[in-house]
Task: inverse folding
């Protein structure tokens, strides 16, 4: 059974980092929360997988979620879920809302839809470029994604941040920087095997 810990990126978030709360950091930016309404909430059919750590802010505690959330507040970005190294799942943005995780983006061919935030759910995995990902992270990522599919009644498309916000997006003028996460350390075959097993064990009716 999924145990998602509410940790919403809004001005009421009580987590303390560097002597102040996440809520206060966010409020200082003039925002009440780190999301906005979707234009078509029923059109969500993509999950974007990211990786993140706080190496630049706190190398000693680079995987500490509090520092990661501070980075989100500092840079005005957000994601729907954060999965820690031990598999703990934090719910950061309500699924029905649009999180700011993809930026300037375009789906791989032949889809080619732009503004991926509009129709996607963003999931962050705590990891560095060299750390790789834990068995618990793969397991709980697959469980979260299978649960999303069951609730929506359809299979989703899965892609990495690098696939929608990489060099192609830069060349098209959609963004200035090229994203590289979750990177080559993310074992897509492990994830897809796990989610396929979840689909088979907890079958659900697909929408036409």
Result:
């Amino acid at each position: 059974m999924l145990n998602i810990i509410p940790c919403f990126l809004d001005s009421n978030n009580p987590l303390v980092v560097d002597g102040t709360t996440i809520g206060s950091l966010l409020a200082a930016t003039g925002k009440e929360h780190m999301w906005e309404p979707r234009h078509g909430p029923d059109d969500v059919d993509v999950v974007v997988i990211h990786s993140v750590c706080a190496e630049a802010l706190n190398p000693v505690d680079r995987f500490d979620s509090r520092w990661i959330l501070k980075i989100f507040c500092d840079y005005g970005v957000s994601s729907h879920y954060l999965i820690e190294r031990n598999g703990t799942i934090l719910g950061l943005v309500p699924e029905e809302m649009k999180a700011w995780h993809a930026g300037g983006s375009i789906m791989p061919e032949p889809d080619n839809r732009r503004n991926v935030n509009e129709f996607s759910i963003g999931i962050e995995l705590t990891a560095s470029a060299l750390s790789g990902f834990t068995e618990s992270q793969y397991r709980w990522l697959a469980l979260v994604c299978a649960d999303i599919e069951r609730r929506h009644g359809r299979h989703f498309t899965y892609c990495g941040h690098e696939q929608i916000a990489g060099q192609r997006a830069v060349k098209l003028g959609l963004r200035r920087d090229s994203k590289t996460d979750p990177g080559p350390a993310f074992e897509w075959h492990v994830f897809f095997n796990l989610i396929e097993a979840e689909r088979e064990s907890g079958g659900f009716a697909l929408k036409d």
Observations:
- The domain at 4-201 is CATH 3.40.80.10 (Lysozyme-like).
